[in-house]
Amino acid sequence: MAGLRMDGAVVVEYAKTAEEAAAELDSAAAEVGGEGVSAESYGALGAQIGLGESYGRAAGALRRQLTDGAEALRSAGEALRRVTVRHGGQDDEAAELIKRAGRLEG
Question: How far apart are CA 98 and CA 19, in angstroms?
Fold first, then answer.
């Protein structure tokens, strides 16, 4: 694409940031629990209205959202790295073409 400039070092830093954020979401997902929570944890009324089960479902939904977010960030990081590699390869090809053109003229 003409006129588009990309600094590969900056893009790699974005990829690292996305990967670090993914790791943080993975850690958060691992901490979302429900372990040790039973029907008795909320007393008789909590057990009667299903508060423990509701908490368990909410914790599961949050864990899935955190896991999905982490996966999306990992995917973004990978894509950014591929862009950097592809862009770097094009720079190498362009440099080689310029070298060849110089040899042909001289």
Answer: 36
